Amino acid sequence: MRGVSRATETRPTLIGRLARLADSDAAAAGFLLAATLLALLWANLPGSTYEDAWHTPFAITFGDASLELDLRHWVNDALMAVFFCLISLEVRRDLVLGEFRDTRRMRVPVAAAVAGLVVPALVFLAVTGLTGQPDEARSAWGVVISTDTAFVLGLLAVVGRSVPVNLRAFVLALSVVDDVGALAVIAVAYTDDLRVVPLVAAVLGLVLVVVLRRIGVWRGSAYLLVAVPVWLGVLASGVHPTLAGVAIGMLLPISPPSAEEVDAAEAAARDYGRTPTSGGAHRAVLSLTRSVSVNERGQRLFRPWVNIVVVPVFALANAGVVLTGETLAAAATSGLTWAIVAGLVLGKLVGVTAGALAAVRARLGSLPSGLFPRHMIGAGAMTGIGFTISLFIVDLAIEDPALAAQARIGVLAASVTAAAVAFGAVAVVRAVDRSRLPGRQRLGRPVREDRDHVRGTVGAPMELVVYASFVFTNAGRTAEVVDELRRDLGEDLVFVYRHLLTDDPVSARAAEAAEAAAAQARFWPMHDALAARAGRLDDRAVRRCAVDAGLNLARVDDAVAAGTHRERVREDHADAVGMDLEDPPRFFVNGQLYDGPLDVAPMRAALELTAGRARARVPAPARGSEEPPEDALPVRAPAVREPA
What we know:
The chain has helices at about 1-20, 25-45, 50-55, 70-95, 105-130, 135-140, 150-160, 165-190, 195-215, 220-235, 240-250, 260-275, 280-290, 295-320, 325-330, 335-360, 375-380, 390-395, 400-435, 475-490, 505-520, 525-530, 540-550, 555-560, 565-580, 600-615, and strands at about 55-60, 65-70, 455, 460-470, 495-500, 585-590, 590-595. The chain is mostly helical. The chain has a 5-stranded mixed β-sheet. Helix 20 links the parallel strand 4 (about 460-470) and strand 5 (about 495-500).
């Protein structure tokens, strides 16, 4: 029995580890790197069969119909469509529920991506023109416009807490716009034979996806049945078929779980618990599945396969470059090779950074919370890692084997160089984040224990004030960071919450409901309940949070309807506007605006640094004196607070 018990305990642990590995961006980058090295080794073996193997034809036949491609095209055209679909699903979620549902925030990565497409191409054309490259080489300008999203996300996973959490969302959004732009370039510049009828059929398939979404179809299989013909239509049209994956991913349904569907799932699960039958289990599974959007289920389904199968197989099929003394010497003296390196490493860095900062300066949008201009340099350096589409465009644009080898070596060299530059940029930005003092902007209104919502003791050595909204996606992340800081710093930290509203009308109603909770001495339970539902709050969810927080719901409804606490919320928001705080959350560390990432380590460093300097400015009292010096920090009595 002991052996059986041990096996039973071990199996879930092993499965769980494999699942976490497949779901990890760092592991995905590791698999991709390993596949790249394996491809290089295979291609350089004596008597290599690399090219012959990937040119092996493979056909799918159904009756009289047949689709035959070689293995490399099955990988590049079919498997990579799944990869681009996954990326589109993630960005679509950020657009609807996440950081970029505020369109002002999406404008900046779009501007950065567009500049990151144009500037590298101009750099490439300038270098190839100055070095007198032939027309075939100059036509390969599309090689330098694309970013390898898998490698970039892997790099972000490796650096981990060294960068703000929102940098991943920014780079991901930028990468998808970049990929769509690159695929559009392929469709226009590298498509020799465009067939309109199959393309029209594919567009009609996409229209059908929209119709299914509008009528509320929630089964993923229905969308899969449409996605396959769409892919076939795009393939037959001569346009690169991975564009079908991008389009499908952007159109699949995405929405927060509705209260009705969650309640139905809970009821089905309870029914099965009372009467465990196969029919009850089936109904419970269907109810739970229906409560989660097709988008989120698709992400969960595709991500492990993309990380450990799709992208590594792509690298294995495309990264096999023959490296000999002769080919390396030719590449080292080739204007084409250096044009690719300059376009990806320098062009991407300058284009993305300048595009993002120009968009912010022109007031087209704003950077996500926790991101500042210095972080755009790191983002620009990362986007210079061009691999997947770059290698693909080499095959489309260049027929000469010698030029193609030089181009592939340029792609590999540029990707390695860009990764090294990105690591260096991240290290510098991390050092700045850790050492940078909070901004010069001072807190406009001092904390008052009789007015503010306080966790901790007013007068504690470290004071953290946040202006935030419950509707903003980062409300949950803000609560997590603050909770960890409170655990680490204990009684030395006092935390204060103030309101900074967004354009979403629910933001104001959630804030007023929180003030109604404060009137019932339950602000913090309501705060925690609202933060736990960040990104999926509506009016019904706010009322549900009130119930979860133990409030008298009728009193909350009456207060919100009457606007009882509206002026209180507006006072906080007016303070924030007066200090030019545009987007939540914005933190004040010991009275100074915090200019750094939303992460525990840099925020704790800022708290300790400013608290230490404040203590250093307090002269020691004279021996025997009973009163502290006039310029000493005030010592206040513990606040009388509602329960936390």
